[in-house]
Amino acid sequence: MVEEELRIGVFVCDCGLNIAGSVDTEEVRRSAEELPGVVVSVRNRYTCADPGQVEIKRHINEHKLNRVVVASCTPRLHESTFRQCVAETGLNPYLFEMANIREHCSWVHLYDRESATKKAKDIVKMAVARASLLQPQQEMEIPVTDAALVIGGGVAGIQTALDLADAGHHVYLVEEKPSIGGIMAQLDKTFPTMDCSICVLGPKMMDAGRHPNIKLFAYSTVEEVSGYVGNFKVRIRKKARYVDETVCNACAKCAEVCPVVIPDEFQQGFSSRKAAYMAFPQAVPSAFLIDMERCLGNNPVACVKCVDACEKKCIDLHMQDKIFEVEVGTIIVATGMDVYDPTQLDEYGYTRFENVITSMEFERLICGGGPTDGHLVRPSDHKAPKRIGFVQCVGSRTENRGYPYCSNVCCMNTVKDSLLIKEHYPDAEIFVFYMDIRAFGKGFEDLLRRSREAGVRYIRGLPGEITEDRATKNLRVRVENTTTARVEEYELDMVVLSVGLEPRADLKRLIGTLNLSQTSDGFLMEAHPKLKPVDAPTPGIFFAGCVESPKDIKDSVTQAGAAAARSSIVLNAGALKGEAIKAVVDLNKCNSCGVCAKRCPYGAIKVDVKAKSGAQLIAAACAGCGTCAAECRFDAITMQHFADDSILAQIDAALETNPEQKIITFLCNWCSYAASDLAGVSRLQYPPNNRFIRTMCSGRVDESFILRALEKGAPIVLLSGCHLGDCHYINANHWTMRRADKLWDKLEKLGIRPERLQLEWISAAEGPRFSQIMHQLEELRQKVTPEEIAHARKVLSRRKLAPKELEAEDELGDTAKV
Amino acid sequence: MFDDNQEVKDTRIHLCLDCGKCTVVCPVARYDPQFNPRLIVQRNVGQNGTNLQDETIWSCLNCYMCLERCNYRVEFPEFIRILRTDAFGKGVQMQCSHGGALQTLTHLMAGENLHQKRLGWLPPDIELSKQSDTIFFVGCAPYFDILFSEMEVNTLEGVEGALRLLNRAHIPFALLSNERCCGRDLLLQGDKKGFMVVAQANMDEFTRLGVKKIITSCPECYYSLKVDYPRMLGRMVAEVVYWTEIMTPLLQAGELCLGRLRKKVTYQDPCTLGRGLRIFDTPRQMLCAVDGLEFVEMEQCREKALCCGASSWVHCGATHRKIQDERLAQAEATGAKMMVTSCPKCQIHLKCAQQSRNDKTPKIDIQDLASLVARSLD
Amino acid sequence: MNKANADIVVFVCNWDGLSCIEAAAQSRTYPASVKVIRVSCLSRVHSGLILKAFELGAGGVMLLGCESGSCYFGKDDEFSTKEYEKTRGVLGLLGLGGERLCLVHLPRGDGARFVKQVKKFMAEIERV
């Protein structure tokens, strides 16, 4: 409630001829003087320029203004500039409102001065009505814990951890395997340089292991995460190794005497390990562990050979898992990916034919640290293969068993493998069966050229079937060579399936823990594909490496650096300021129904429904979408700066005169408002009947706003937002859609034609489409009869508007993740 | 423009990645180097209609093998149908097998004042239920047995077997006295007009008699009634069911018991029933429910089954013979004494192939699934 | 397919059969609705061709060939008889009536019997 007398100042901008050219700005200025609360109305040539700003400040001081309205361009351009200007006079910047009479008016109604001026006057009237109800707001400061959590110890996780640690931040590096290193530790050589993989990774692993700022949790998982950016609380479970890693000197005596022999997953099952084992020689931490699931037993203890053999007496078969609670400011997810299992592709015979192997298996066979000490032999008879084929795109670029995307690395991996084979066996005949060879990166085409020069044959066509000669175990590959349009048959000693990359199977658990989203290919969704490639939509969480999408080592390391830098911004800030658009719960009205908690895309509200605790809102986690306020059936939630009354006031102001001529449109700040601006910038003309109301998210639009618009005589209402899946607030527009569905049913029951409420998803790039929609709306508006408008006005004014009907809450479970 | 055609777009032909997997697995391409499905796409997409120089479009067997392996499940057989329809409409003469007799037969069945006398084969012991709104769609079996009598083709035996089993299972049904050919062959050949006439005539009968459910034992009729009729006519008045799909739940519930027959058999998956409609299991379940039957699979079975080598009475030649020989060889290699198939056309084409072999190996007995299973009841 | 005023198609072999037609043409007339199609031997005529005649509107089809042992090519009539029987069966099933197809063997130059057979055939078809 406003305590003191309203003193509103209105500043109408000519913007050179941009506005004045098609709008009578003097008339707009004059009419603003007559609005309630306005004490001064001024016209400027260029309000955003220095002289314009000085003038605003002068007027604020002279007239003791306590609300400022600038009628000029789009707030998405200069709102912060003017807020700054206003703040400099000591006035709270949230008492400032912009009226968009350029992108929304002068630029799109270039040839109808009368209508454009009328519309501009309406826009200013709406802005003044809103300004009257604005309240001063304080931006909250959130203290930041100067520590980061890195989940995943592959090359991306290691790099991020090192970068952050070197920058002086505390890092907790959590890796679920007994050693860090990830997939890169399993590779032989890397493209395009043909560096030895573990040789370049090893030193980094060592650095990460002994960096004073990095606390390494190997053989550990992240169990639970709570909190918000700057203040995450993490529970880490360190699994019992049954070996004291600080004492173990890796003498390997325990492994010598252990009686249990198991396939070694690091060697892709080609050789074996013991239950007492070290993951691989370069493991960090450099310590053994006991695989308790395969050990003969520790409850009761069945065999103590390892305990007896241990020099340092550091084996404790009764070790327990340990839980650690840590606090961090940011989280970087770098959990990597899995490799596609081609068993289901029966035409290739993987697991049925011994000499058909995957590219990962090939890496181990040719690696010096592998099961054959780097002698490339074929599995069936351990002889050196003379004719080898590579099949590309296995499990990638397909909708028929596999994944539709391209896995990025397989082409270059095969090129590298072909050269590796030539190094070992210069006379080997190598065939690569491909659809496309993607050699897009630095040095890639060079490597491909080297491969061709070495005599590797690249055959364009994917094999339709592979059969085996039972006697020799050779493989017969049938493929159409699409260049010659002939079906060819190749008899080969060995076939390597160049398998694609897939999201990890257990990603869902991590997604649940951290409230993340997936893209359609199953990898994690970034905040913006071009401009925020390493940020998660949830503030404070970043990605590095293949967890976000398939990529090679260079790109993983690059992303890791980016994630570390982005993370540093938060950690260095000491305290974070958030825009003061937050939800506030009135606990007196709250009924603890729990709906808001279910709707919030950020999990920022917690409600104990049974205990009737009231909705507990974590302001720091609130992103300000407004969905909770719109969904709350008890009107217990207020959105700061976008309160119900300020929006209703805009509707009333717009429809005060000639409502039957006007269409009320709700635009969301991020997509549809941006589209409307783009239509303006592009000077796309459309009819001047629309009046726009801005909210941060379409989820903010309460049912009551739409009904108010219809009650006040609007023929058509348009509700618009981002495309489903693109919502700036993760998935709040999903609730908008549901609300629209319900509202259509309601309108029908009230005898109001449901088409009078339109719903459109418009992306920020769709300027032309926005203009098209404006034309379509006007056509619709002309078909609405005065009787219909009158009927709606009558029926809606008779309805009790509060409380909202308590409909049964439909079972939707978790908010839908896109 | 051909490419703007929604039908063409719906086949997803533009997603073809040109990888060539289809050419490798296609049975026709295997024996005929001129036939290349990938090149047919190349030659005909983006043109102003079918490339009329391309004669290979008539050789496709519609066996769905390409679709099975394609990365994008491009509907190549449907694309072929569209090309043929376009070419046929432009007056291209296609090569019909058997002198075009089957095509002519279907056209004759389209006559308005047609009063067929097609139920003469019906044995007296089979019970019909005149009031039932379920019918059994017989298909062209009565005509096949006459036209292919020298090959000892007996497709009616299969129909009788199915009817006897339905009686045994107490499932009531009626038979149409003026049932027309389902029209599938005409549609596949590109004679869409011809198809529409017989299809509409059948639909009118169904509507007139209030038919609500149709059971059939011919996979081609099944596909036609279930998929093509609603697609081409815009609606279908009845539910369409393949006979094994109603029989096997009864077998599993113990409500129907089959008898005993000691034979070693193998099963030929008809392309339309198998890859086309994904019915692999229920025919096998029926076979295995016969006591004493030893069932063995051929090397290429289920999703990989090899086509019987002919389709819709178009273009039968040396290539197709080779495919049929291969299939017969695969059947013989299993050591089975009998090859069971649940499609009258597979029966006809494979028996035809058997006739022209030089008796190199003992002939495997080819039988219809329904007739075999019904025989076990005796 | 119009039953009334339907044509009769006669597939006639080029040798003995054709001689009957020519003899008939010289001394007597046969109805104008009788359309003659010459083939090199009756064994050329398979069920597809016969049915096609019906598809194109024929009311009846007659197969006219030589008598047993007289074939110019030394063939017997096994094939054409088989095709005749098959097609008859199909016509019967179709409800058109197998009577619409007849198989006639005549000696050289027997124009008179040809005309008699044709007229008898046409009368039979009228009745169907």
Describe this structure in words.
The complex is a heterotrimer of chains A (818), B (378) and C (128). Chain A is built from 22 helices and 38 strands. With 818 residues, chain A is α/β, with parallel strands linked by helices. Chain A has a five-stranded parallel beta sheet with strand order 10-7-6-18-29. Chain A is elongated. With 378 residues, chain B is an alpha/beta fold. In chain B, strands 2-1-3-4 form a four-stranded parallel beta sheet. A four-stranded parallel beta sheet of chain B has the order 6-5-7-8, sandwiched between helices. In chain B, helix 13 crosses helix 15 (281-288). The model of chain B has no long low-confidence stretch (mean pLDDT 91). By secondary structure, chain C is α/β, with parallel strands linked by helices. Chain C has one domain (3-127): Rossmann fold (3-Layer(aba) Sandwich). Chain C has four helices and four strands. In chain C, strand 3 (60-65), helix 3 (78-94) and strand 4 (101-105) form a beta-alpha-beta unit. In chain C, helix 1 (16-27) crosses helix 4. The chains are: A alpha/beta (818), B alpha/beta (378), C alpha/beta (128). Chains in contact: A-B, B-C. Chains A and B meet through strand 25 of A and helix 2 of B.
